[in-house]
């Protein structure tokens, strides 16, 4: 099996992809920043390579001798005091490592995009690979960065690099150290900090199922194509109901109107810009919740062999991990 470089292996989704690669027999090297927490690498057969996506020399060293690249790293924040940090990491970082992979003669790249780069049809149908999001209409710098970064992957493909694009939906599960904005939904529920909910929807997939989808994309995906790695489409109320059933906690009963959520997000984000502390209710998150983020992953199931466990099991695994590790 190939020698493979993975970015983002210290993070939530990246650590799951790392484990899936090891399970599939890859010899793995992980690009890690000197300041990154390495809890998710503990006990694994992985070779750390210190570097940074914006340091081309470090990328060249990390890719030396590698046949495959899994570029999973991303700045997944719905708020930053300096939004250019998100755009720089996700767009410039992707451009930089894909150029380095091309120069190093990497045979195949799996690029982790996001359903943030998939458009939502106006008629309410779940989004598919054929739907493209408009960066000019994107809700905030994170979503805009993922749309632009995916275009960098297409540019690299047109330039001769073998790139397969995967678009994870909403992964949940263990090892969400920070946690991610998605994990924070689970954690806020566990801490009793979600007294109400908005009428929105998510596509839930277990993080380890999503990770195996990455490996399947490497093995079976068509170069230049994109694959949505998703599970079940659920309203937020249904998500909270499943969490309640898995944990024995009561779900919130009150549904708040979108305008009130928007006002709370605006106030919280305005205070964050003054205090420098992450907002409890990021306004960009509220904007994204304006529409149900439902997606169709049938192509990945048919062409890659993607298999996913029920959302209730995925959410239960996430809740148990947070509880077992003292987050709630």
Can you offer a commentary on this structure?
With 328 residues, the chain is α/β, with parallel strands linked by helices. The chain contains eleven helices and twelve strands. It has a seven-stranded parallel beta sheet, sandwiched between helices. Strands 7-9-11 form a three-stranded mixed beta sheet. A two-stranded parallel ribbon has the order 8-12. It starts with a strand and ends with a helix. The mean pLDDT is 93.
Report the strand count.
12
Q: Helix and strand string, N-terminal first?
A: EHEEHEHEHEEHEEHEEHEHHHH
- Any low-confidence stretches, pLDDT <50, length ≥5? none
Give the overall form: globular
- Report the sheet with the most strands, covering strand number, pairing sense and barrel closure: 7 strands, parallel
CATH homologous superfamily designation of the domain at 3-178 and 204-231 and 293-308: NAD(P)-binding Rossmann-like Domain
Look at the structure and give the mean pLDDT. Answer: 93
Strand content: 15-25%
Helical run tally? 11
Q: What is the C-alpha radius of gyration, as a whole number of Å?
A: 19 Å
CATH class bucket of the domain at 3-178 and 204-231 and 293-308: Alpha Beta
Share of helical residues: 40-55%
- CATH fold category name of the domain at 3-178 and 204-231 and 293-308: Rossmann fold
State the separation between the terminal residues, measured CA to CA: 41 Å
The CATH architecture of the domain at 3-178 and 204-231 and 293-308 comes to 3-Layer(aba) Sandwich
Structural class: alpha/beta
């Amino acid at each position: 099996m190939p020698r493979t470089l993975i970015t983002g292996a210290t993070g939530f989704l990246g650590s799951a992809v790392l484990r899936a690669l090891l399970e599939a027999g890859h010899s793995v090297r992980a690009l890690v920043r000197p300041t990154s927490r390495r809890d998710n690498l503990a006990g694994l057969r992985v070779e750390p390579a210190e570097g940074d996506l914006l340091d081309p020399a470090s990328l060249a060293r990390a890719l030396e001798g590698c046949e495959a690249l899994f570029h999973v790293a991303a700045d997944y924040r719905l708020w930053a005091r300096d939004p250019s940090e998100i755009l720089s990491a996700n767009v410039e970082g992707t451009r930089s490592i894909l150029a380095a992979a091309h120069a190093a003669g990497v045979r195949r790249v799996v690029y982790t995009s996001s359903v943030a780069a998939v458009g939502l049809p106006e008629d309410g149908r779940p989004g598919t690979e054929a739907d493209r999001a408009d960066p000019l209409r994107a809700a905030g710098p994170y979503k805009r960065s993922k749309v632009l970064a995916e275009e960098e992957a297409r540019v690299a493909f047109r330039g001769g690099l073998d790139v397969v694009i995967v678009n994870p939906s909403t992964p949940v599960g263990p090892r969400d150290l920070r946690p991610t904005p998605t994990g924070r939904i689970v954690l806020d529920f566990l801490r009793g900090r979600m007294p109400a909910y908005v009428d929105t929807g998510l596509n839930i997939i277990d993080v380890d199922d999503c990770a195996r989808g990455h490996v399947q994309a490497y093995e079976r995906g068509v170069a230049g194509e994109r694959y949505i790695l998703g599970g079940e489409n659920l309203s937020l109320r249904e998500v909270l109901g499943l969490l309640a059933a898995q944990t024995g906690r009561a779900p919130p009963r009150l549904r708040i109107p979108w305008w009130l959520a928007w006002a709370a997000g605006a106030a919280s984000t305005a205070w964050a810009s003054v205090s420098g502390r992450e907002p409890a209710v990021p306004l960009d998150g509220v904007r994204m919740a304006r529409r149900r983020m439902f997606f169709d992953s049938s192509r990945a199931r048919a062409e890659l062999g993607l298999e996913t466990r029920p959302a209730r099991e995925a959410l239960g695994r996430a809740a148990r991990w947070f509880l077992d590790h003292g987050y709630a």
